[in-house]
Each structure stands twice: as C-alpha cells, then as structure tokens.
Design goal:
Blueprint lengths: L2 H4 L1 E6 L3 H11 L4 E7 L3 H10 L6 E3 L2 H7 L4 E4 L3 H13 L4 E4 L6 H14 L3 E4 L6 H12 L3 E9 L14 H18 L3 E9 L11 E8 L4 E7 L12 E6 L2 E5 L5 E6 L10 E3 L11 H15 L7 H20 L3 E2 L5
Parallel strand pairs: 1-2, 1-4, 2-3, 4-5, 5-6, 7-10
Antiparallel strand pairs: 7-11, 8-9, 8-15, 9-10, 11-12, 12-13, 13-14
Helix pairs in contact: 5-6, 6-10, 7-8, 8-10
Bound molecules: nicotinamide-adenine-dinucleotide (NAD).
C-alpha cells in the first residue's frame, strides 16, 4: 500500500508554546500529516503554519470549522486546561479520537463529562502524561519492584522557575500545573490507586507567585502504600530535577532516584541478631532507549488506534491522577482528609 494511504491526518488545536512543540513532533512522524491547525486566535495558527513552512496544513479559528472542512483521523488538544473539555467533547462527538495535553480538565465535573463523551462515542480519549515516557523512570520502577511490596514512596520537588504569566496568578500553581505529573508518576511507579489525600498548601513571604507556591501532601494508596509529596516552585538554590527526588521503601530494601541518572538500590541480607541488618547494593542494568516525552505518548496513541489496545493515560485511568490534584486542593482549603471517592 502506498505510504500516503497509511498517513493519519491530525487536527492540532492550540498554537501556543506547547502547540509549537507538538507541531514539530507530529510533523516529523512518518505516519502523520497535520491537516489543520486551529487556534481561537486565528493569526497564531496561520503565523505558526507559515513559520514552520507546513505547506499541507490549513489554519482555522475554530475546531468545528476544521472538522467540517477536513477529513481527519484524530485531534491533538494542546489548548489551555479550561478549554480541554469543550475541545475534547466536540471532537469525540464528531467521531474523532483525542490525544490531549495534561491536566485532563480544569475541574472534576468537566473531566467526568469528557469520560462520558468517550464512552458514548466509543472513541479513545488519551491524556498525554509525557513524563511517563522516561527510560530512567522505567528503570526506577524496576528497581522498586525488585525490593518487593512497596510501603513508603517519598518525593521531594524543589525548583524556583520564574515563569511570569498565568502560573504566577493561579491559586494553586504547583499542585494544579505541575504536581499532576509527579502524582501520575507515583501511580506509574507503584501501580497503586489513590484512596485519600491530606494536603497543606503555603506560600513563603519571598514568593513571587500569588497563589500557593509550596505544598506538602500525604496520600493513602491501595496495597497499604503511603505516598509523601513535598514540593515548592519558589525554592532558590540546591534544585531538584523536574522529575523530583525519590525514595521508595519496600519489604526487602530501598531504592533512590535523583530524577536524573543516579538510581541506587540496597537489598537487605538475612542477618539475624544484627541491630541494622546488612545490605547489598544492587547492580542496575542500563535502561534501553525508548521514545521519550510526547514522542512516546504519540507513539502509544497511534499504536492504540491501530490495535485497539488501551494506552497509558486513557481517560478512565488518567482521571485518577487528576483526582489526586483536586483532592489536594479540597483538603488544603477545607483542612481535612479527602477521600478520592468523594470526587469520582
Ligand atoms: N507535557 C508538558 O510537559 C507540558 C508543558 C507545557 C504545557 N503543557 C500543557 O499544554 C497545554 C497548553 O500549554 P501552553 O503552554 O501551550 O499554553 P499557551 O497559553 O501558550 O497556548 C494555548 C493556546 O490555546 C489557544 N486556545 C485556547 N482556547 C482554545 C480553544 N477553545 N480552541 C482553540 N484554541 C484555543 C490559545 O489561544 C493559545 O494560543 C496546557 O494544558 C499545559 O498544561 C504541557
């Protein structure tokens, strides 16, 4: 079959910072053609098409128009979180599967509407949690598994980015815009489901953000796991990586990951009568290369369209990561333990 018949035609929605990155990745994929680029700010879409010299791509000011004019195979939603629900529901109801940016939605009510639209249309809605596609994260998950059932999972996330713009105005910038990645990574690493959250948000006097630049959260997870999160987006000096610094304690040992390259794992040896039992360092194999970041999520989405498999980030699963975010915000505002079942 000629290659052009295998090409899938995408409608890309959103021509902001992340939309530009998606355009590059879609454009370089040998089985994808960007049929349309949509932005409510039409000139952004048309300027971007010109700047990137996408000669086969047409600009549109609304998704409705683009769907009507183009025969497309799927939609990639890279709009602001407040628009994810309307864009995704419109695409699904028009019979198009959707690969959408995180966070799934700006509220749990919207997220539930999106899941319902996927069920009613029978079309796939997958959220791109790009930080899952990281070979070191996958290697760290293996290291944790080797230490048996996980009981404690801790992460420290300390960065001081001076973004300016919408994040500096948000009420919960760290929890809503960033911690969704870290919470989703905790689910990926542990395989456990979130059950309840306790969270305290704060903002130190030197903070350049209006809302809470810091948060501390404890999650009760299934299988007896406790996941502890400590984070700040207004911490200067001695920064952690964007993946955070992790400690996972299992029944047979502990594994650490600095979020960059260093994974350290120690397994306890049988040593009756010792105060601290002796341990042995584990040797970790170099992790295999994978398609990382949004290239990875695009690959998994296309594979799911082809084979009918359920990808990571499928909306019924991803809504649990979003629920961790909203449980934290509720807990911090109402100063109480919040069960995930209150939100889903
Ligand atoms: N995975 C990552 O690492 C990562 C990094 C950055 C951003 N993101 C996510 O990507 C998304 C976009 O972020 P950004 O930084 O590009 O934002 P942005 O504000 O730069 O761009 C968003 C664009 O969407 C357009 N838009 C808004 N509503 C629309 C609608 N209904 N229809 C069509 N266009 C609409 C806006 O005009 C704007 O051009 C967000 O959900 C963000 O959280 C993910």
């Amino acid at each position: 079959m000629p290659d052009y018949l295998l090409m899938k035609r995408a409608i890309l929605v959103g021509a902001g910072g992340m939309g530009q990155t998606w355009a590059d990745v879609l454009n370089h994929h040998d089985q994808v053609q960007i049929a349309a680029w949509v932005d409510t700010d039409f000139s952004r879409a048309s300027d971007a098409i010109q700047a990137k010299n996408l000669i086969d791509t047409k600009p549109y000011g609304s998704l409705k128009e683009a769907i009507k004019a183009e025969s497309a195979d799927f939609v990639v939603d890279v709009t602001i979180p407040e628009a994810h629900c309307s864009v995704t529901v419109e695409a699904l109801r028009s019979g198009l599967p959707v690969l959408g940016e995180k966070p799934m939605a700006a509220s749990m009510e919207q997220a539930k509407q999106m899941v319902a639209a996927s069920e009613e249309s029978g079309k796939l809605y997958m959220v791109s949690q790009s930080r899952r596609y990281d070979r070191m994260l996958i290697a760290y998950r293996e290291a944790l598994r080797e230490n048996g059932t996980l009981g404690i999972l801790n992460v420290d996330f300390y960065l001081g980015p001076h973004f300016g713009g919408f994040r500096d105005e948000m009420e919960s910038p760290l929890i809503l815009d960033m911690a969704i990645h870290t919470f989703d990574q905790a689910r990926f690493l542990s395989g456990s489901k979130p059950l309840a959250a306790y969270c305290y948000e704060s903002n130190p006097h030197w903070s350049w953000m209006k809302g809470a630049g810091c948060a501390t959260a404890i999650f009760e997870m299934s299988d007896g796991l406790v996941f502890n999160y400590r984070g700040s987006w207004v911490a200067e000096g001695c920064l952690t990586s964007w993946e955070g610094e992790w400690r996972g304690v299992g029944e047979r040992g502990t594994a650490l990951w600095d979020g960059h390259n260093a994974i350290r794992s120690e397994e306890v040896l049988a040593g009756d009568g010792e105060f601290f039992r002796p341990v042995r360092s584990r040797n970790l194999e170099a992790p295999p290369e994978i398609l990382e970041g949004i290239r990875g999520s695009l690959g998994e989405f296309l594979e799911a369209l082809e084979s009918g498999s359920t990808p990571q980030g499928e909306c019924h699963d991803n809504i649990l990561s979003l629920a961790m975010v909203f449980a934290c915000m509720k807990s911090s505002r109402e100063k109480r333990r919040v069960e995930i079942s209150e939100l889903i």
